[in-house]
Amino acid sequence: MRRGRKTDNCNLPPILQRYDDYMRTIYKPSTREGYLYVLLMFHEYLQHKLNKSLEKITRADIESYVAELTLRKDREDITQSFVKSIAKAIRTFAEWLMDKGILDPAEFYKIERYIKKIPGGDIGEDDTEALSDEEEKQVFRKLQDVLLQMLFWTGLNFGLRRTEYCNLRVRHLELDREEPRLKIERSKGRRKKTRYYDLFPGQVSQLRKWLQFLASLNLPHDFVFFNPKNPSEKPNKDRVSSWFSKISRISGIHVPSHRLRYTYASRLWEAEVDIYIISHLLGHSKIETTVRYLKIPDKNFRKKFMESAKRLFH
Question: At 35, which CATH number?
């Protein structure tokens, strides 16, 4: 949820200072900072667009804010899961306002019902379309920078999240195993989730070439991706977003990172890879998320069932 900005309690509106004091008793620092950052963004929106204070929020205000975030998704590479997390943070704040007698309970329940209906999951489940073969070729033709080429190739081959580009290290490329694989580690709260991608010969060859290139640079870290302007800097989500924005400008094809993730998943589905395997490779915790993500209509499930089950039934 956090977007790389710290908040200063002294500069918070009075209501957020009170809420911050409350959060210090129940949340760890990173969660508290994330909630405060979200609420500060919402506070600025209310003041500049609606001339309202946080104490007087309504369901209509939140609907309006979510609508604006949705319009900014493609331009700023905001994911649907981030929109959902913002709404949840505002809902938690609204519940605290209700408990303090500041917000009318009837209004809180309107807010809660609305937020429950906001789609969750990653971008790709709304209006994202997979890259066509011609679009893919055009991007590769236009890209001259080896770092951007590798980012684009990685997205097509593994469908990573932005944080996963940031955290990918050389040791995660397990190329010398009898069965080579790519390891992805992702922290979710206090839990660390790990998944693996089995690698094909062409992928192994491409990754070995990239490792040779990295070795020639003598970088002071073992991250797979790096900032050419500041090689010692660890990549972050904003940097990854800016790289993909640059790819889009150079190629003339809209290619935010989530579109490559969606393209990866869609191509697996079209190749008749099992939906549970796709769900695992995307790192989804629920199969329902994958179904929504791929926008799979019921008729496609029926068709695949009929084709597969005819070997069993006559």
Answer: 1.10.150
Does 89 share its domain with 146? no
- Which residue segment(s) compose the domain that 105 sits in? 9-116
Residue 191 shares a structural domain with residue 234: yes
Same domain, 144 and 99: no
Per-residue pLDDT of 240-295, as tens digits, reads 888 998 999 899 888 888 889 999 999 999 898 989 999 999 988 888 888 877 87
In this prediction the pTM is 0.61
Which two structure tokens, joined as six digits, stand for 223? 């991250």
CA-CA distance, 155 to 282, in Å (whole number)? 12
Site of tokens 């008729």: 299
Pairing assessment for the beta strands 173-174 and 181-188 based on DSSP bridges: antiparallel
For the stretch 128-166, pLDDT in tens is 688 999 999 999 999 999 999 999 999 999 999 988 999
3-state secondary structure the chain: CCCCCCCCHHHCCHHHHHHHHHHCCCCCHHHHHHHHHHHHHHHHHHHHHHCCCHHHCCHHHHHHHHHHHHHHHHHHCCCHHHHHHHHHHHHHHHHHHHHCCCCCHHHHHHHHHHHHCCCCCCCCCCCCCCCCHHHHHHHHHHCCCHHHHHHHHHHHHHCCCHHHHHHCEHHHEECCCCCCEEEEEEEECCEEEEEEEECCHHHHHHHHHHHHHHHHHCCCCCECCCCCCCCCCCCCHHHHHHHHHHHHHHHCCCCCHHHHHHHHHHHHHHCCCCHHHHHHHHCCCCHHHHHHHHCCCHHHHHHHHHHHHCCCCC
One-letter amino acid for residue 91 of the chain = R
The confidence band for 50, taking pLDDT boundaries of 50, 70 and 90, is confident
- For residues 278 and 227, membership in a common domain is answered with yes
Helix axes 14-23, 80-99, angle to 10 degrees: 100
Task: Tell me how many domains the chain contains.
Answer: 2
Instruction: Please tell me what DSSP assigns to residue 110.
Output: H
